[in-house]
Amino acid sequence: MAHPGNQRSMEEDMADAVSETMAEAMPKNRGRQPEVTMDSRLDSDLGLDSLTRAELLVTVERKFGVQLPEQLLSEADTPRDILDEVMRLKGEQPEKKSERHRAGGKETEAALDAGNENRDHFSVPDFETLQEALSWHAREHPHRTYLHWIKSYDDVRSLTFGDLHKGALRVANGLFQHDIELRDTIALMLPTSHDYFYGFFGALYANAIPVPLYPPMRASEIEEHLKRQAAILNNAQPRVMITVPEAKKLAAVVKGMVPSLKHVLTLDEIWANSLDRPVTGVQGDDIAFLQYTSGSTGNPKGVSLSHANIFANIGAGNEVIQVDQGDVFVSWLPLYHDMGLIGTCLSSLWYGLHLAIMSPLLFLTRPQYWLWAIDRFGGTLSPSPNFGYELCLKRIHDEDMEGLDLSSWRVAFNGAEPVSPDTVARFIERFSKWGFRAESMAPVYGLAENCVALTFPEESRKPVIDYIDRDRFQKDGEAKPVPNGDKSALRFVSCGKVIPNHDIRIVDDDGNELGERQEGNLQFTGPSATRGYYRNEDKTAALFDGQWLNTGDRGYIADGELYLTGRNKDLIVRAGRNIYPGEIEEAVGELELVRAGCVVAFASGMGESEGERLIVVAETRERDQKKLDEIKEKIHRIAMDSLGIEVDEVLMVRPHTVPKTSSGKLRRNDCRLRYERDELERKSEPVWRQLARLIGGTWSQQGQRSLKSAARWLYSAWSWTVLGVISIPVWLLVNVLPGLPLRWQIAHWGARLLALFTGTRLNVEAAERLRKLPKGCIIVSNHTSYLDSLVLAALIPVPVSFIAKAELMNVRGLKRFLTRMGIEPVDRADAQSSVSDSRRIAANTKNRRLVFFPEGSFDAAPGLRPFHMGAFMTATVLKEKVIPLAIRGTRRKLPADRWNPRPGPVSVVIGEPIQPEGDDWKSAVQLRDRARKTILEISGEPDRLLR
Predict the structure, then answer these.
(1) Fold of 4-105
(2) Residue-range domain boundaries for the chain
(3) C-alpha angle with apex 647: 646 to 652, nearest 5 degrees?
(4) pTM of the model as a whole
(5) Topology at the third CATH level for domain 130-456
(6) CA–CA distance, 188 with 182 (Å, rounded to integer)
(7) Which has more confidence, 509 or 668?
(8) What is the per-residue burial (b if ≥16 Cβ within 10 Å, else e) of 446-480?
(9) Would 589 disulfide with which of 11, 71, 170, 596, CB 3.0-4.6 Å?
(10) CB-based contact 38:84 (threshold 8 Å)
């Protein structure tokens, strides 16, 4: 619904448009015009005939910046009918008649206070893209709060759908001013904040592909972090990275490591004037963004996720948990992680749920903030990996929870890493005193290759834990149940059943499907499944087994429910038994002086004569050697007595030695490689030394960048010099030579010389149509750069007349030149210019070639803007053919608001002539639509028409 104040302003503007039109069309009645109201009849009350109503529509289009449908000419009875259509086109739903005077025009939507905002329920349409979803919410309820960003107890910042929409449009325009092209990738290295959402949706609004990355956590790890991020960036090949000021200081280093990266910018640097609308042209099957895997078993891979994948996944998951607008998501998960981004933020966006977010760092330092946020905002849905629940158990004291109420929390997702039966049981027991229900704990399974979710519990219930025979499972892979409480049993937590419209299966190493309770490789299929890894054909081929995708995980299915047992690459085989490191790691992590979650077990020495060895690495802060020896002995004893496993070597290492992914998963393979290279405990180096080593490794790349930059500036300087040298004699000759044809010949050859000496190749497609241009015709072209007029002057047979904005006549030294070139000025600021100027031009320029840029103006964003009617009204009056023409390459050669031209060709495509079918307004509208459709097709530009 439109903001009441905004609607009153639009009604005043509409009344002014009607009055202006009546004053121009009926000057004799200027002093005694009837009063204009929104419900006045256009014909009987205001006396507007069909031509004047046509002029009214032109005035309204100019005043409000929209393109009205032709049928409105006959269908509109009142100014309100026209205003309703304008508001629909501008994305502001008109108020219903019964609501127009409600509450004296005051806001009816309550301000949010601690999550108690009026959360009206509504139905959402079937969106095709994420940007379409945000645009719809911004139109329907711009003042509705999308999210609250929790910085501290006393600093909570809201973001409405409308503000996010406007901010994203500003970022999109800023991206275009930094040379972004359609479907380019945009790296986002931003922490949890409003800026992240502006950057993410700004990239989408620019028809680009966002690539979420994580910022460095510690300066001491800057070298390793940049190397890992460089691997991701070189795969994604972004042109722009948006990051924080602190990381921007390393821009030269990062650009030296990533050849494709042209700009490293903060959001303040990329912030620009707002685009009028998102750039369109994206389909549901197009890539929405790249979600890089955590890299727990190798280098991160860029999962290509389409809009259709994302909506299929969110829809299937939410069907199971029955989401509606009464739900509130609360999340501390990082926004570069699939569960944090897709599972919470994009899911909330689709359904218009209220979302409360906080930084992962805030959670790690003060985990109680998470639970208090659920209390304060009435959170009903909130996810966390298993370690988050474990952290709450260890770090939160009872006195921190005094007065806490978790009774609103109906689904506590537990996924993204193995779920510990002990953690689940202890969290339920501990926090039940503050209202947490056992039925709320929901172990789930998902992976980036399926967006995020793959299995959910079908109904609210206590977590299901399966006790199985250890020996049978480790030797034969059979998950045979044993009585609950059997101390020797292996325990696995059910992750629920596969989400709707998807399927899973368990297969052996040869791809044969296994039966109930047989452990093997987990595969899946469904509409959420990725089409593959971005620019990685080998890994994509390994991902697919026909229509099925390999997860890399192992598990078994019992009663239709999935039980995960571990990762294929982490499997340790000892004496014919399959051993998974997770059980060892969890048991060791419970020892005193050992850092929980910082223990890793792996097999080393595969293929060597002495055989494979089992290694356990555990972090500790303890430095006393005697105590360290005691811990090692306990680890050996626990492994043998409880698990029946003999450990070959135990290493006690200092904190932060065990490598982890950005989402906190253990990188076991990386740890193994470091162990085998004897680099496990690398000495901490000063940051300056790490940076010096990185810079030293990129000096060649930085040198090449400097040479390319110098070459671009030299070309720019040369181009302006050539322009100056050529334009002076052209200007003088045009001002003194007689006859318009001769003057145009001078301008024509001047433009061709400029192209020649700047190395600009001019290509013409369908050149025969250009040679056969009649002396009397209307040429309409897209408009992308200041170079467009020069290109057409160099190619179109002379003489020709350009239609230019009247403001140019006020530029000193230009008026005489333009007049002598036969330029016809139009006043774009005048609401009546389309009609009156069309009549004047038609009367003055018979049998002449007229060139129009019907878009009227251009900006840095690609796309064909709405067309004004002047060219087409002139064509219908003159009964001349319209020649559609498309220019390609000038926007890249000299973008809007940039004055450093760059090398590159320019091409012009000539469309088929279009003959007007009549001489009335309807014919002019049809002519406009046909010409615009042709130019849209031959230009290759996306459509920026407001729908």
Answers:
(1) 1.10.1200
(2) 4-105, 130-456, 709-939
(3) 155
(4) 0.77
(5) Rossmann fold (3.40.50)
(6) 17
(7) 509
(8) bbbbbbbbbbbbeeeeebbbbbbbbeebbeebbbe
(9) 596
(10) no
